[in-house]
Design goal:
about 500 residues; mainly alpha; three-stranded antiparallel beta sheet; 19 helices
Length: about 500
């Protein structure tokens, strides 16, 4: 194995040196001094360009590293300018752009962290005044003042993360994950955090460093050793090469034995399903390495055995996938692989382990008179052959009754507080996911919440009920997040603690 070239022997761009490429007549000394001031301002994070001056007719052209064109500019003019540039000049300009993009990404992380940290320090803008400062305060749930304040800080942080998420169209978990990485870098890897802010390492490098640093024990000496080594490697290795080197470095500085760490890591094992395109899905399992390799070995052995059958045309990859599906669905690998080859990508199952699935199939589609796609609960549209097969295997049916002219669902229950099974099923059709913006948790895993409280005269009816996951249900009742739905309105919207009105997401399918 060859060692990478030492950093000292490799030319590396630095955030402190922004290449300046002149594609116009040489500037005057005053202009050079002005540009030098601007470069120093960029390094110190205080650069504010004068856009009016930049784009006025009589302004002096900027270097390419500052003026890269925009979608509305004359593309031909930009091309003529770039045609005069040497390849090395364009590469330097590209490097400068990449450094600035990294700096902007790091600034996003910093601002997200600042907002959440301030929400924890001052929860009032997010959850309202602190009730514990009232001498007559008494908690209905019997919590102490300290416990209530901890809950307020946690809910304020959650509310702030939701505000950022809906403004940037991100998942709340993405926001919290980025803030978690930033906090880890700030607390444990100061060198890496500074390199990220300076644009000397990419977001991918920073995330890898944060994840590995977060897995280290509470040992400042280990943090420092890892920070120093990881930052030096991140500045000269690609993310994939760095990943291997950083994991090896973590092993060296970790104080705990691999046995202790494996026992702890094994508690995080699990299986996840991710929807893919064209009626497919990815099944991911996090397992102890020995069990994962044993499972893969068995699947590979079964696939190679099936591949020897006469007339078998499936690839080894396809055979492994089909063998896994057969085994997990409660059957076994078919003895006659050619006959067991699934149609339309569906796996044939045997035995008594019939899976339980929920499929919504339009009646005309089922009869072959329409091509409106069916939907698989929690996934989305599926092909009609698969839908008809599942419908044929169904042991029971659920009818959803609607008005014969308008198609509006009929009222199911207006007299009881508890949501009936039929009504919950209907809400799962009309609102298949949590109704908070950006949340994709399936309705079947959500609480059913009254928009107008039952105590305030709200009915237990589809007009007044929406699925909310437990997290957003708490935000609705314990922070300043508020769902809004005007009388007679079909559309629901949410008002954030900062006063923004956000529409709910359209149905996923």
């Amino acid at each position: 194995m060859t060692s990478p070239t030492p950093a000292a022997h490799r030319p590396m761009p630095s955030a402190a040196v922004v290449p300046v490429v002149f594609l116009a007549p040489p500037p005057s000394d005053d202009e050079l001094e002005a540009w030098a001031d601007e470069i120093r301002a960029i390094e110190e994070g205080r650069f504010e360009p004068d856009w009016d001056a930049l784009f006025s007719d009589d302004s002096t052209p900027w270097p390419v590293s500052h003026d890269l064109g925009s979608p509305g500019e004359d593309a031909a003019a930009v091309s003529e300018t770039e045609a005069d540039a040497r390849p090395i000049d364009l590469v330097h300009t590209l490097v400068a752009v990449a450094i600035r993009r990294r700096q902007d990404t790091a600034e996003e992380y910093r601002l997200m962290t600042l907002i959440l940290d301030r929400a924890v320090a001052d929860p009032d803008p997010w959850v309202g005044p602190d009730p514990t400062i009232d001498l007559a305060w008494d908690d209905s749930r019997g919590r102490s003042a300290a416990s209530v304040r901890r809950d307020r800080a946690d809910l304020a942080e959650r509310a702030a993360a939701a505000e950022i998420a809906v403004q940037l169209r991100l998942a709340e978990q993405t926001v919290r994950t980025r803030v978690g990485h930033a906090r880890t870098l700030q607390a444990r890897c100061g060198l890496a955090w500074r390199a990220f802010l300076d644009g000397r390492i990419s977001e991918s490098h920073a995330i890898r460093i944060a994840r590995l640093a977060d897995s280290l024990p509470d040992d400042r000496e280990a943090w420092t050793a890892f920070d120093t080594g990881a930052t030096e490697r991140a500045e000269r290795l690609t993310p994939s090469s760095f990943d291997t080197a950083a994991r090896a470095l973590r092993e060296k500085v970790h104080a705990e034995s691999i046995e202790e760490r494996h026992r702890r890591a094994a508690r995080d094992r699990g299986v996840w399903l991710t929807a893919e395109l064209d009626g497919m899905a990815t099944l991911t399992a996090l397992l102890p390495a020995d069990k994962a390799h044993a499972a893969m070995t068995r699947l590979d052995r079964a696939a190679r055995h099936l591949a020897t059958a006469a007339g078998e045309e499936r690839t080894l990859a396809q055979l492994r996938a089909d063998a896994l599906a057969d085994l997990l669905a409660g059957g076994s690998v078919a003895e006659n692989p050619a006959a067991a080859a699934p149609a339309a990508g569906a796996s044939k199952t045997s035995g008594s382990g019939r899976p339980t699935v929920v499929v919504t199939v339009p009646a005309l589609t089922l009869l072959g008179r329409d091509d409106t796609p069916a939907t698989l609960d929690g996934y989305g549209p599926i092909d009609l052959d698969t839908a008809r097969r599942l419908a044929g295997e169904a042991s029971s049916w659920i009818r959803v009754l609607t008005h014969p002219v308008t198609g509006v669902p009929l009222a199911l229950d207006r007299t009881r507080y508890r949501v009936t099974t039929a009504l919950r099923r209907w809400l799962g059709v009309t609102s298949p996911t949590c109704v908070f913006p950006g949340c994709a948790r399936p309705a079947r895993d959500c609480d059913i919440d009254h928009l107008t409280a039952w105590a305030d005269g709200g009915a237990t009816d589809h007009d007044n009920l929406e699925p909310e996951c437990r997290h957003h249900h708490r935000l609705r009742h314990e922070t300043k997040w508020e769902p809004l739905k005007d009388p007679g309105d079909v559309d629901l919207r949410w008002r954030s603690p900062l006063g923004h009105d956000i529409e709910v997401d359209p149905p996923p399918f």
